Amino acid sequence: MGKRIFYFLLTNVLVLVTISIIFSLIGGGNYINEQGGIDYASLLVVSAVIGFTGSFISLAMSRWMAKKMMNVRVLHPEGPLAQHEKEIVDKVHRLSRAAGLTHMPEVGLYDAAEVNAFATGPSKKRSLVAVSTGLLQEMDDDAVEGVIAHEVAHIANGDMVTMTLLQGVVNTFVVFLARIAAWGVSRFVREDLAPVVHFIAVLVFQIAFSILGSLVVFAYSRHREYHADKGGADLAGRDKMVHALKTLKAYSNRINEDDQDTIATLKINNKGKSMLFSTHPDLDERIRRLSM
């Protein structure tokens, strides 16, 4: 869950920087007017082109990126599968049909001790649901179904596309403000050094502002988790969804604080930590809302 957001944001930053470098090298998007000042209208257009291009490329790469970085093994329904693998595929497809999806997501499994699952992909027709071996070892059948229902709900809700649009808006402001700040810095150096300083400053400010902009994406991610919990409850049943969250809570209570930073990538227990940098709300609050 948390890793889906992390990889999407990482890919977005890398793509955004790459596009910005290419634009600078080919001289595209000139927003400096004849007086040496900024043409803000032109800059806004350039920023929107770069920003939304970056976010949509990140979305297009999301499923491929997740498979490569997590070493996900796709479970093909028609291929030879172990019994537990077949059960995972059956759960994903059954819940997907219940959610009204006409194209079944790819189902993947990856080896990791962490209790984790995620859904990603550029569209409902090209999505992926993957679970870790650690999740299968730690959870019983009902809890696993609750987790999978939650991930299928993310796909049915079109969360990745919505996040892409939000990221495109954030990227636009990141590019826009980074270039204004870089222009300001370049005014304090010699004229012959100004282009080089401006180029470097754009990249530095863009990365810095991207990190700040990610706070907006994190806030949206926390908000949409409640909707995915509700969707998961509608698909698998409220008892199974609550049971899944309580199992995650029990797991998070068993591992020590050091392990939570490296193993609990779901961000399933955020008490005592700043919510600003969390992709998921507190587990107790999620359980409380479902139990109302």
UniProtKB/TrEMBL annotation:
Subcellular location: Cell membrane
Tagged with keyword Cell membrane: yes
TM spans (from-to): 7-28, 40-61, 165-185, 197-220
Gene3D superfamilies documented for this protein: Metalloproteases ('zincins'), catalytic domain
Main location: membrane
InterPro entries: HtpX_protease, Peptidase_M48
One GO CC term, this protein: plasma membrane
Keywords, ordered alphabetically: Cell membrane, Hydrolase, Membrane, Metal-binding, Metalloprotease, Protease, Transmembrane, Transmembrane helix, Zinc
CDD domains for the chain: M48B_HtpX_like (cd07335)
Domain Peptidase M48 per the UniProt entry, residue ranges: 83-291
Pfam families registered for this protein in UniProt: Peptidase_M48
Record membrane topology: Multi-pass membrane protein
Cofactor(s) required, per the database record: Zn(2+)
Cofactor remark from the record: Binds 1 zinc ion per subunit.
Molecular function via GO: metal ion binding; metalloendopeptidase activity
Example of a GO biological process term: proteolysis
Entry-linked PANTHER family: PROTEASE HTPX
NCBIfam families: PRK05457.1 (NF003965)
UniProt similarity note: Belongs to the peptidase M48 family.
Designated name of the protein: Protease HtpX
Organism this protein belongs to: Mesobacillus campisalis
